[in-house]
Specification:
The structure is a single chain. Helix 9 packs across helix 12 (818-827) and helix 9 packs across helix 14 (844-860). Among the domains are: 2-30 and 723-745; 31-193, Leucine-rich repeat, LRR (right-handed beta-alpha superhelix) (Alpha-Beta Horseshoe); 768-930, 3-Layer(aba) Sandwich (Rossmann fold). It has 933 residues and is α/β, with parallel strands linked by helices. It has a 28-stranded mixed β-sheet, with no helix packed on it. Strands 41-40-42-43-44 form a 5-stranded parallel β-sheet, sandwiched between helices. The chain has a 3-stranded parallel β-sheet with strand order 13-15-17. It is found in: Membrane. It is a single-pass type I membrane protein.
């Protein structure tokens, strides 16, 4: 049982070693795929944006991706294998490519796909089976292709399709579009070659269409003979109705649900237009009449005032009227009198020089008068329009405002006054518009804002003052704006922010100060930090300051911004930042420092912002990324450090960014040597961090590799391949285990013999030159055989024959190591007499003595060993001493059992061995005495 147990244990060891070997070998042969996707940016392993002139669909995109944007590439064909590894896809954008063919079955795996863009490609025909597999697709864009025909079963799989855009193609009819899309709600077919519309071409039964766009088709014939559009609400016919169109709608109830009608740009007589309008009943709420060639005033009068045309019921329910882009110069006072339900009136892009009096008699909520020629606003222009919520007056030459112009707009929420040449506000917002939430004053000529200029705007949330000529922000400028959340002051001429300028903006979340002239001459603290009272500010834009290169930001410039999350400090020509700059922004989440002139970053600059997740420091002349080692940015997810001057990325830097998911190093030139060996392997093998556009990284050093791609460089000689080491180590472990098992089983005693033979050799080398022998013979025996040695051997050899014998109990030197005594005794004697018995063979020290003596025998090739056997020991028990056994078989020997009658002869032969020296090794004789036990 012990032997069986031992064998089983050995087998288990060998089996385990083989398993480790297989695993390591597997890893070595099949390395883990890295996180490098050519030309693609992968974010959070779910979104892929690939815009790098790709010619084929990239195969490296992870299967976990649900959103892919491949627009703007050079892909010309989609085959069955292109998307076979992307089963989780929900959104696919293949627009703006050169796709002319899609093989049948390309999308069979994309059963989860919801939205697909194939616009701006070169598809000529929609073939049967092209969209097989897209059973859950709800939105399909095929705009701007060259589609001429639609095969009958093209959309057979698209049973859940709700939105289809076939605009700007070459379709001549609408056949085969609605037959397999029962849930289609929006159908856009603008700018095709459709001149005849037959309802039977679309479907033989009612559809669920809500929106139908036939604009820009130049219709000559429109026939609706069945009520297939019971749910249609929006009908777009702009630029489609030609002069002389045949309009046949057999029953006006067929369009009873249409509430939005766009017939802009009609090229028809008033009678033809009347036919179109008569088909729409009183449900019409939105009417768009842009680019009408007829006299608009006549049209309005005909539509809304002439009873014989029976149009009054149409106008009384109208809620939105768009009269834009019609070259209107004036509108009569009663033009909108009949439109009692009108809520939105758009008269933009006309030639009005003043606010029409007609708008005062309406109950509109939204008025758009932008892009006209209104050069002044009077105090009564908006009289009694208390219900107005949205007013657009931008792109009019207003020049200046009056304090009374908005006096009645007590419920106004949005006021748009940009691009109006305004240089003075004149107190327009000191008393009026208490409910205003959005005020846009961008791109005007404002130079100064008076104290309390906006004090009446307690509800204002967004104030846009960019692209003006403001030079200074003073205390009290924004008094009253206690609810303001967003303030835009971009592209002014601000050089100074005085103490208290932002003191009343306690709710401010976003402040944009880009493209101004804010400057400081020193890093030293300033007495009045500009943002000291903006404790709730979340986002600060302070990039693009037009400043001398010597200017700096004071170390307490950001003091007070305790809740700041995002800051942009790009393109400011900064050469350095004080190490304490971000001490005041502990909650900073995103930092943009790109396009400055940093050569180095202070090691502890980012230490106070441990929550940082996105860091942008591209194009700043950085020579190293070692500053990141001291930053402890353990939450950093995105690092953008492209277009700098460093060429080596070290292992400690990357390992310090434990949460990094996206790394942008575009535009750097790398050293393609062993300095970057670890980084190269990391780029290929790491699964967490995507290194954007790594396939295009180029070598700058050494010169012979300049211009080569980094990922093409072989640096295996620089790195320690742990897989290969594991493979070799495991192989060696397996071989050693097998060898140990085999040796233990079959060669145990041979190893023991070799060990002692080596010890003998070492002692022989030490003592072989010591000179004359001190003894005639050293007697090696077991203590159990001491009686025979002292009673028989010792008297015969010493007393009668004059031998000088060495006995361990008598002649060994006290205090000397036993092994050294044994060796000295053997090499100090002419002969070694081994008294062999069974006890002798089991003795450790006797075994060592005979090993040393045996080595001397074979080393010196002299007759130095005499074996005296006290017992008849079978030959197989001498197996550990295989050299001795071989000599016994080859050499002459004397047997004591055969010398019983002549013992004196035996002792005489033994005496002769005392001085006998053979002429050659073959003359060696070993005297063996087999004595009775």
């Amino acid at each position: 049982r012990p032997a069986l147990f031992s064998l089983k244990k050995k087998q288990e060891i060998c089996f385990c070693s083989f398993g480790i070997l297989y695993f390591s070998l597997n890893s070595f042969i099949f390395p883990t795929a890295g996180y490098v996707v050519k030309g693609c940016q992968i974010t959070q392993n779910t979104r892929a944006i690939c815009k790098n002139s790709l010619k084929v669909f990239p195969k490296e995109i992870p299967e976990t991706v649900t959103f892919i944007d491949l627009s703007g590439n050079n892909i010309s064909k989609l085959n069955k294998k292109a998307l076979e590894n992307l089963p989780n896809l929900l959104h696919l954008n293949l627009g703006h490519n050169f796709i002319s063919k899609i093989e049948s079955g390309t999308f069979v795996v994309q059963i989860s796909l919801k939205v697909m863009f194939l616009d701006n490609n070169m598809l000529c025909k929609l073939q049967d089976g092209m969209f097989d597999g897209l059973v859950n697709l709800i939105e399909l864009h095929l705009t701007s292709n060259q589609i001429q025909t639609v095969a009958p079963a093209s959309f057979m799989s698209l049973s859940k399709l709700g939105f289809l855009d076939l605009g700007h193609n070459k379709l001549r009819d609408l056949k085969n579009i609605l037959h397999h899309t029962p849930h289609l709600q929006s159908l856009y077919i603008p700018a095709n070659n459709i001149s005849i519309f037959h309802s039977w071409e679309l479907s033989n039964k009612s559809t669920e269409l809500v929106t139908l766009d036939l604009s820009q088709n130049e219709l000559m014939f429109f026939r609706l003979t069945a009520g297939i559009f019971p749910k249609l609400k929006k009908l777009h016919l702009e630029d489609s109705i030609k002069n002389g169109i045949v309009w046949e709608v057999s029953n006006t109830s067929y369009l009873r649900s249409v509430h939005k009608l766009d017939i802009s740009g009609v090229r028809s007589s008033l009678h033809g237009l009347q036919e179109v309008l008569e088909t729409c009943n009183s449900s019409l709420q939105y009417l768009k009449l842009n680019h009408i060639n007829n006299n608009l005033q006549v049209l309005i009068n005909i539509s809304c005032k002439i009873p014989t045309l029976d149009m009054l019921h149409l106008c009384t329910n109208l809620k939105e009227l768009d009269l834009g882009m019609n070259e209107i110069t004036a509108i009569s006072n009663n033009s909108f009198k009949s439109l009692r339900k009108l809520k939105t009136l758009i008269i933009k892009s006309n030639f009005l020089t003043s606010v029409p009096y007609a708008v005062r008699k309406t109950q509109i909520l939204k008025l758009d008068l932008s892009y006209n020629n209104i050069n002044a606003l009077g105090c009564d222009d908006f009289a009694d329009m208390k219900q107005l919520r949205h007013l657009s007056l931008y792109n009019n030459p207003l020049m200046a405002l009056k304090d009374c112009v908005f006096k009645d707009l007590v419920h106004l929420n949005v006021l748009m006054l940009q691009n109006s040449g305004i240089d003075k506000l004149n107190g327009a917002f000191k008393k009026n518009t208490p409910n205003l939430e959005n005020l846009i004053l961008s791109n005007n000529h404002l130079t100064v804002l008076d104290h309390g200029e906006f004090k009446a705007l307690n509800s204002l949330k967004n104030l846009a003052l960019e692209v003006n000529k403001l030079k200074q922000l003073n205390d009290g400028t924004f008094f009253g704006l206690s609810s303001l959340r967003q303030l835009t002051l971009r592209s002014n001429e601000i050089t100074e922010i005085t103490n208290g300028a932002f003191s009343h903006l306690e709710a401010l979340k976003t402040l944009n100060l880009e493209s101004n002239h804010i400057k400081y001459a020193s890093l030293e603290p300033i007495p009045y930090p500009p943002f000291a009272e903006l404790s709730q500010l979340d986002t600060l834009f302070i990039s693009d300051q037009h400043r001398p290169r010597r200017d700096k930001f004071p170390q307490n410039f950001l003091q007070g911004l305790t809740n700041l999350s995002i800051i942009y400090i790009q393109r400011n020509q900064l050469k350095t930042l004080h190490p304490h700059t971000f001490n005041y922004t502990p909650n900073l989440n995103r930092l943009h420092l790109s396009e400055n002139a940093f050569a180095d970053i202070p090691n502890n600059l980012f230490s106070p912002i441990q929550k940082l997740k996105r860091l942008h420091i591209s194009q700043t002349n950085l020579r190293s990324l070692d500053f990141l080692l001291h930053a402890n940015l353990t939450e950093l997810e995105l690092l953008q450090v492209g277009k700098n001057t460093f060429s080596v990325i070290t292992e400690p830097v990357m390992l310090s960014l434990s949460a990094l998911e996206y790394l942008d190093l575009q535009g750097n030139s790398f050293s393609c040597n062993c300095d970057n060996a670890w980084f190269l392997q990391w780029v290929i093998n790491n699964k967490q961090t995507q290194v954007f556009d790594a396939n295009n990284f180029e070598c700058n050093f050494p010169p012979n590799l300049k211009g080569r791609k980094l990922l093409e460089i072989d640096v295996r000689s620089c790195t320690v391949d742990m897989g290969f080491i594991c493979y070799i180590s495991t192989t060696c472990a397996v071989i050693m285990t097998i060898a140990v098992c085999f040796t233990h089983k079959f060669l145990q005693w041979h190893l023991v013999y070799a060990y002692y033979l080596m010890l003998a050799f070492l002692y022989n080398s030490k003592n072989k030159d010591k000179g004359a022998h001190q003894y005639d013979a050293f007697v090696s025996y077991n203590t159990n055989d001491e009686g025979w040695v002292l009673g028989e051997l010792l008297p015969k050899l010493e007393d009668e024959q004059g031998w000088r014998l060495c006995l361990h109990h008598r002649d060994f030197q006290p205090g000397k190591p036993i092994m050294e005594n044994i060796t000295d005794a053997i090499y100090g004697s002419r002969k070694t007499i081994c008294v062999v018995s069974r006890d002798y063979l089991e003795s450790e020290w006797c075994s060592r003595e005979i090993q040393v003596a045996s080595f001397r025998l074979f080393d010196e090739q002299k007759d130095v060993l005499i074996l005296v056997f006290l017992e008849d020991i079978p030959m197989q028990q001498l197996s550990p001493y295989y050299r001795m056994r071989r000599l016994l078989k080859r050499q002459t020997y004397l047997s004591w059992s055969r010398a019983d009658a002549h013992p004196d002869l035996f002792w005489e032969k033994l005496r002769q061995k005392r001085c006998y020296i053979p002429s050659s090794p073959r003359d060696l004789i070993i005297v063996i005495a087999f004595l009775p036990a």
